[in-house]
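Quick start: what a row looks like.
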Amino acid sequence: MSRPRIVIVGAGFAGYRTARTLARLTRHKADITLLNPTDYFLYLPLLPQVAAGVLEPRRVSVSLPGTLPDVRLVLGEADDIDLDARTVHYSDPEGSSGTLAYDRLVLAAGSVNKLLPIPGVAEHAHGFRGLPEALYLRDHVTRQVELAASSDDPKSRAARCTFVVVGAGYTGTEVAAHGQLFTDALVRKRPLREGIRPRWLLLDVAPRVLPELDERLSRTADRVLRQRGVDVRTGTSVKEATSTGALLSDGEFIDTRTLVWCVGVRPDPLAASLELPMERGRLLVDPYLQVPGRDDLFACGDAAAVPDLEKPGQYTPMTAQHAWRQGRTAGHNVAASLGIGEPRAYRHRDLGFTVDLGGVKAAANPLGIPLSGPAAGIVTRGYHLAAMPGNRVRVAADWLLDAVLPRQAVQLGLVRSWSVPLDTASPELARQPGPSQKGPAPGEPTATTTDGDAANAGAKGSAASGPERPGKAGSEGAAGAEPDRNVASRPGGTGPARPAAPGSDSSAEGSS
């Protein structure tokens, strides 16, 4: 008798832990296949440190083949799912197509950047959901400071040294906090003329930063940001974006070449393509993470609307904290559907959150105990090390080197502006030029936009507005809501816990 076939779509927080749990429970009694665009699990909570030059990108990229040896990895993005035929059709990184047959399917496709109908945002802003975007931002910020240092135009220098982050949830707050430290370090090596200092603005329509957290954590983060020099503006957002700046909702125009979009996420469109009952773009499931009427279909993470048993009538938010734990529950219930163990309902209680503010500063409330300053920083970094499924020694080594050595800041030129459009179903992948869209070759001279990025304006336009696949095998960790740092996410000893901080923003920043 052939072994049952289990296909998991997406290797973010939910998909990764589902695969890990199933591999442990089934013990070679089932064939487990993981479909994902990349060969790594992205530990999203530490992504701001990649953009700020604290960590190298491989530190937050945990090898799937290396940590899931009993799971077959198929590189690709899901294009279509045939529920009646029990098949998943996908495209691999080189453009070929394939089909995976299954007896049990787990949809953990995560989420993508949330777009709002604001003129110019899709063309001139960049998200922060994957490694390509983090690497692009690091290069871009470094380039702006270097161009400002060599410019003779005071207005241009000021604009290049102004960085605007929209969205004061977990991601936006951490990007602004780390970004200010990063640019301050850059200008210490090469001071700007006329005493110009890099200026970071953090905008949100909410009345305070981190509006989804306890007010004490919010006040701590706000105080640290302002002391560091970040211009925090609540009750304010962007009304229009252009190539030379951003018009704010209060009528002020900010001259800038950098607009980072961290307002939240939306479920991956793959879930909606199944034409099953949905809740605001998420697939409706029961407390056992099973789609009603489909004994072969499970969903978890940002792709699923999971009933919140702690809050009757509500659904669990799109956070990495929930995604990580739902992945474990999904693994147990898929195994139970095959006769291995008993099914269990998903139930969760928050144990605390952490927000890394860079340096030795952080805000945390493990087990409800409010902490700030170095104590919170130690708790936050200790939590991340305990939560990561791999690379712990390398991450700790990078932190140590950053504490005792000057930060390295060079442009690698690996990711261009047009290759990381805001409007994409695959934030974890850099966009490749199509047959009629030639991207600039490395080292090749190109037309430059006003922000100084080497990018072909036409290519960028088509990348941002061109057609996307209806869905993808995205990893919620990379494309999903940013992981909320919930201390309860600690994986115990079995795997990464959803770190307590890069969680979902109040603006619907998901995390699968």
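That is the whole record. The CA atoms of residues 166 and 203 lie 5 Å apart. The chain has 14 helices and 25 strands.
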